Structures are given as C-alpha cells and as structure tokens.
Amino acid sequence: MGNSKRIAVVGAAGHTGRFVVEELLRRTIAPIAVGRNRTKLESHCCAPEVELRIADLQNPRSLDCALDGVDAVINCAGPFLDSARPVVEAALRAGIHYLDVTAEQASAIATFDEFDARARSAGIAVVPAAGFYGGFGDLLATTAVGDWTTADELTIFIALDHWWPTEGTRKTGARNTVPRVVLQSGTLTPQEFPRRTTTWTFVEPFGAQDVVEAPLTETVLIARHLAVSDATNFISAQPLREVDDSATPPPARSDAMGRSHQQFAVEAVARWGDDERRTVARGQDIYALTASLIVEAAQRIVTDGSARSGALTPGGTFDARSFLAALERSYPSLEVWYR
User: Which of 63, 76, 109, 317 is most open to solvent, judged by the fewest CB atoms within 10 Å of its CB?
Assistant: First the structure.
C-alpha cells in the first residue's frame, strides 16, 4: 500500500474492529486483521489487501506471531478487563505501540497503573480508551480547559438518539461489574448512589434531555493529565434504557460507510470560579467515530519519531484542537465548536 506502516487490529471481525480496518485502508495504512476465528475474519475482513492472522489471547506465542513486523496494535477485543493485559504484554515484547477503545474504567486504570513505567522504559506509547467513550470526551474537555492552569469542575454531557448495542457492548456490560469512579477534590472516588440525575439542553436536534450520571473512561483520562478538582459525565436516560434492554437490536448499516442512523451530541463544560467554557460536538454513529479517532491517534504516533512514551491519554498527548480539527476533516458529519 502507499503507506509503509502496518497496524494490527485485534478483534478485527467485531463491529468496531471492522470500522478500524476500513479506516486504515482509507488512509492507505496496511491493516493486519487479528482474530480467533479465521472464518469470521475471512467473512468480515475480505479486502484482498488485508492480511489475516489467527491469535488466541490466552496463547502468548500466537499473539507474538500475530504482532510480528507491525508498528502498532489497536485492540478492539472487549471486554478489555480480559483482553488489555495480554495484548499490552505482547506489544511490549514486540516493542510496538498499543491503543485500545475501552470504556471500562477499571481496565483503563489498570493499564495506566501497570504499564506506564514499562512502556516508558521500552520507548513505546500505550494509549487506553482512545474511542468515543474516553478519548473523544477527553479531547473535548482538554480544549474546554484550554490555557487555564486548573478548573473547579469539568462535566461531560452525552446525548444519543438511540443506543443500539453491539455484541461486544453487551459482553462488556455483563463482564464489567466493577464500581465506577468520579473525580472529587482531585481524587478518583467511588460513585455515590443513587446516581445523580438532571436535565441538560443540548444542541439541535436533541434539545432538553433527562440525563443520568454514568461515568466512563473520560473521567479516568481527565484525572491523569488535567488539574481538575471534580469531574464526571452524564448520558441521556432513554438510550441507557435501550442498552439495558435485551430486546434492543444491534446497529444496522444505513450508509456507504456502514454507519447506523444513530446521532450523538457531546458537550464538555469546564468551570473555574465564575468563568465557564464549553466544547460542543455532534455527529453520526459512535462506533464509526471511534474507528476514525483511534486510527488518527495511531497514525500520529507511528509517524512521529518524537512521540512520547509511557501510558498516555489522547488529551495529554496530542494538541487537542488540531486533533479535533483533523477529525472534522476526515469524518463525515462531525461538527465541533467552542463557546
């Protein structure tokens, strides 16, 4: 392909993994599709230029073979409480960069705690939670804080018109029973129950929405690199009910990119004293956006010889405004603005 870089995608046959493979192809980066089942890989990653490799997360030797000769690995194989550690270990053995799309707070925290020093020593970047939940909110929050040296409060509000869960989302929800955390007085603290609720007025087409406190990996990332006292996030109540309903169908293809009709809006609101700043975004399909975001991050890391090493956050690693501007240019329907 036109680009000499090669990036492995673990979980390539899954819903998000397929978007990631397609995004790599679009950017002329050679994808290596990695999975346990060759038949599924051949069915879902069938472009002739996609190399297929079989690996079992419980078999380090097979992972080593799957990651041989690549520049980075993107892990899309949730639940990440099970997959992150073995894939990061394999990345360290191979001396390559690692990124994942986890929304599981416990997985992201464990990756930061266990692999920061080892990644710095190896000279590689380990970037957990570089997806819609996690990295996107972190980038929006970083631009909202801007040149402030600190902030009293940072809240992320997320609206979805629907949440059609993938098979991976359902498996992750069943596996992830670890209590969630919020940021209070600069410390990650267990979320209190009952969960807080409020109403938030989003940009069109959403308007006023009932929202429920549902902290995900955004909070963990923000705590790593922003001097914020309190941080949490809220999600609109109706899609939370949909994702909890076993009868809700998975996302259905609606356009040439394979995206569903799902619409989203995200607002990061930073407060310092009497001052308030907001970064606002809206677009289509959280899973497809995740693919564009993580591939943008991986491309920047593998092509920048001065890239930082260690366990990193998107907002703390990249220039957040330029990163979001690049996403706007590359991802159809995404809009980002600042207030």
Answer: 109
